[in-house]
Amino acid sequence: MRTVGVEEELLLVDPESGEPQALSAAVLARAARCEQAEQEPVFQKELHNQMVEFATHPQSRMGELAEELVRIRGEAARHAKEAGCAVAALATSPLAVRPSVSIGRRYRWMADQFGIATREQIVCGCHVHVAVDSDEEGVAVLDRIRPWLPVLMALSANSPFWQGRETGYSSYRRRVWLRWPSAGPTELFGPADNYHRRVADMVATGTILDEAMVYFDARLSARYPTVEVRVADVCLHADTAVLVAILVRGLVETAARAWAAGQEPVDHSISLLRLADWQAARSGLTGHLVHPLTMRHASAESVVRDLLEHVGDALADSGDLERARASCAALLRDGNGSQVQREVWERTGSLREVVSSCVRHTQA
């Protein structure tokens, strides 16, 4: 089976007030003392000092991936507590935050180049890496998974609040993220050479610094032999992150099989994909989505059902089908992160309580 790795970004918050805290250096210093010198660090700094990032190891079995996610979230919580803060799997801060950009040449360049857009990017995502056999297979996968990516965003949506206000969006992180000039859905690439030429041309404009700053919704990783899918909010619950990983691997395997069988990708325009993306960010699982195949309104429940059908053979072969069905049913019944946050807000009227609740959910 294809291996899967997950990267998660977590928000550092004051355990009492719920306000974001610029304590990443202190958290990372404590993590470094616990990590073995010969291993690649699990925790990394992010663009802002109010955030930390971690990455799992590549895993073949989803049970093992789930165990690792829960363990590392627990480690992050312990390091944060020692530094005087807490970690929350929140894709945006419900409370107002004053951005603090991390030190480093790359981050200074971004702050100078993109101005306020850089300072506003205190947003936390979940990135899923799935192994591919070659760049040709990887680009063929990118071409074929495009219309399904908004469904992953709807499932993971976990950012209804921004700077102390209700946004009306299930994933407002997504609207903020698209302020980067290289972010969003892509056209069909065809051969891998076309993909690499497009990336090189983008870097050559001087608008972005390097290949790593090409923020496509799904891309070839610059570091690993993987396809990297980047549309999901950081998920409130680890189980939801595992579901996203299962579905991403299913999409990659399904697309690779279609490519090998000579099936052409669906040629939806970027204009339609952007509308589907907006609708998913707006309504999450609470309303209608744009169906990936027909590009027409359909209920979230029916679109999720059709996603499971689309990847069903791949999930059955990996042994993940029943887990995916159960997790999707639970999300549709109980709500995703954005729905959980809104329920706490409606019940308590307190964004501080929203953050406190999410701190608890992060380690559940």
UniProtKB/TrEMBL annotation:
InterPro entries tied to this protein: GCL_type2/YbdK_subfam (IPR050141), GCS2 (IPR006336), Gln_synth/guanido_kin_cat_dom (IPR014746), YbdK (IPR011793)
Class of the enzyme per the UniProt entry, highest EC level: ligase
EC number: 6.3.2.2
Claim: Ribosomal protein is one of the keywords in the record: no
One of the Pfam families matching this protein, by short name: GCS2
Transmembrane segments: none
PANTHER family (UniProt xref): GLUTAMATE--CYSTEINE LIGASE 2-RELATED (PTHR36510)
GO biological process: modified amino acid biosynthetic process
Stated name of the protein: Putative glutamate--cysteine ligase 2
Keywords: ATP-binding, Ligase, Nucleotide-binding
Entry function: ATP-dependent carboxylate-amine ligase which exhibits weak glutamate--cysteine ligase activity.
